[in-house]
């Protein structure tokens, strides 16, 4: 079961009223949405977006007996404006992004997100990627060494990015890199021994970087945030929970820029993080950061 992160805090800061229209841009199993629905009541409307059909099915089941009106849409949140247009909603009182993926999604996709299973090296959010869709396999087998190193550094913050890219290019001359385990073995060879005994697995950062690149997660986040502010009502609030520093920096900078443009106010002068109790109950929450913005 996915436990919603910072639930009390999100609900407190979203300032919800009965009858509000709320967009949950990453609904997953409706952990936050269930509570949101309770707050906005039967006159309220919840629009839940997710790019994963299984998550939407789960949300549908979870929200079956809730009071508010529920509209579920399979889409990327970068198309938030089009989703709302499609369901004839012009403005929202609150929008929530709870970024990332549940461990269930990562483990069960069969598309190579996890370095602990031997699977085809795809890493696409799309279940059936088309011929022309970018995959992790395409990046490691065809991109130039420098470009591979750059993304591993930028989106993985991996200090051995150059060594890993070099080894990838060396090995692929002999053999096409096909599966997650092919790549794990390359990273293992490219990094020093002490790196294998750290708390986080030596392949974590490279895998994160490839996933972010394949799915243009940074582009989607920037687009999604911009579109949210366009559809937010005056005094409406945008809440964003992120789990790694690359995303958090983007959100922080986005809020600062929008404040300077006089579009709204940063509500969370200090970021909100889970307390010890929450981290003990739900270790996945330990890296969560919540930021809130209010539109003028
Ligand atoms: C951490 S989960 C959200 C959990 C949810 N708040 C809850 O408590 O049940 C993130 C969800 O966002 C979805 N997601 C990630 N990137 C997305 C994107 N660009 N567009 C739409 N959904 C996305 C994932 O499929 C996943 O279901």
TrEMBL record:
<feature type="binding site">
    <location>
        <position position="77"/>
    </location>
    <ligand>
        <name>S-adenosyl-L-methionine</name>
    </ligand>
</feature>
<dbReference type="InterPro" id="IPR023397">
    <property type="entry name" value="SAM-dep_MeTrfase_MraW_recog"/>
</dbReference>
<feature type="binding site">
    <location>
        <position position="98"/>
    </location>
    <ligand>
        <name>S-adenosyl-L-methionine</name>
    </ligand>
</feature>
<feature type="binding site">
    <location>
        <position position="50"/>
    </location>
    <ligand>
        <name>S-adenosyl-L-methionine</name>
    </ligand>
</feature>
<feature type="binding site">
    <location>
        <begin position="30"/>
        <end position="32"/>
    </location>
    <ligand>
        <name>S-adenosyl-L-methionine</name>
    </ligand>
</feature>
<keyword id="KW-0963">Cytoplasm</keyword>
<comment type="function">
    <text>Specifically methylates the N4 position of cytidine in position 1402 (C1402) of 16S rRNA.</text>
</comment>
<keyword id="KW-0808">Transferase</keyword>
<feature type="binding site">
    <location>
        <position position="105"/>
    </location>
    <ligand>
        <name>S-adenosyl-L-methionine</name>
    </ligand>
</feature>
<dbReference type="InterPro" id="IPR029063">
    <property type="entry name" value="SAM-dependent_MTases_sf"/>
</dbReference>
<protein>
    <recommendedName>
        <fullName>Ribosomal RNA small subunit methyltransferase H</fullName>
        <ecNumber>2.1.1.199</ecNumber>
    </recommendedName>
</protein>
<keyword id="KW-0489">Methyltransferase</keyword>
<dbReference type="Pfam" id="PF01795">
    <property type="entry name" value="Methyltransf_5"/>
</dbReference>
<keyword id="KW-0949">S-adenosyl-L-methionine</keyword>
<dbReference type="GO" id="GO:0071424">
    <property type="term" value="F:rRNA (cytosine-N4-)-methyltransferase activity"/>
</dbReference>
<keyword id="KW-0698">rRNA processing</keyword>
<dbReference type="GO" id="GO:0070475">
    <property type="term" value="P:rRNA base methylation"/>
</dbReference>
<dbReference type="InterPro" id="IPR002903">
    <property type="entry name" value="RsmH"/>
</dbReference>
<dbReference type="GO" id="GO:0005737">
    <property type="term" value="C:cytoplasm"/>
</dbReference>
<comment type="similarity">
    <text>Belongs to the methyltransferase superfamily. RsmH family.</text>
</comment>
């Amino acid at each position: 079961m996915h436990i919603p992160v910072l639930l009390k805090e999100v609900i407190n800061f979203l300032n919800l009223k009965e009858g509000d229209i709320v967009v949950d841009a990453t609904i997953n199993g409706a952990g936050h949405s269930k509570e949101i629905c309770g707050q906005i009541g039967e006159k309220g409307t919840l629009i839940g977006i997710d790019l994963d059909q299984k998550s939407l099915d789960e949300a549908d089941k979870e929200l079956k007996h809730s009071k508010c009106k529920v509209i579920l849409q399979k889409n990327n949140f970068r198309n938030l404006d089009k989703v709302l247009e499609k369901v004839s909603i012009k403005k929202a009182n609150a929008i929530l992004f709870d970024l990332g993926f549940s461990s269930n999604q990562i483990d069960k996709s069969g598309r190579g997100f996890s370095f602990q299973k031997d699977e085809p090296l795809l890493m696409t959010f799309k279940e059936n990627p088309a011929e022309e869709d970018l995959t992790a396999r395409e990046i490691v087998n065809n991109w130039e060494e420098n470009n591979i190193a750059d993304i591993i550094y930028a989106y993985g913050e991996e200090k051995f990015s150059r060594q890993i890219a070099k080894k990838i290019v060396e090995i692929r001359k002999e053999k096409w890199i096909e599966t997650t385990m092919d790549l794990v073995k390359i990273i293992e060879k490219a990094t020093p021994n002490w790196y294998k005994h750290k708390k986080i697995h030596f392949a974590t950062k490279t895998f994160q970087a490839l996933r972010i690149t394949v799915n243009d997660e940074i582009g989607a986040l920037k687009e999604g945030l911009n579109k949210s502010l366009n559809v937010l009502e005056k005094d409406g609030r945008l809440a964003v929970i992120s789990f790694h520093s690359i995303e958090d920096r983007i959100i922080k900078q986005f809020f600062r820029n929008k404040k300077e443009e006089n579009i709204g106010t940063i509500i969370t002068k200090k970021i909100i993080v889970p307390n010890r109790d929450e981290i003990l109950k739900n270790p996945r929450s330990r890296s969560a950061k919540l930021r809130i913005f209010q539109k003028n």
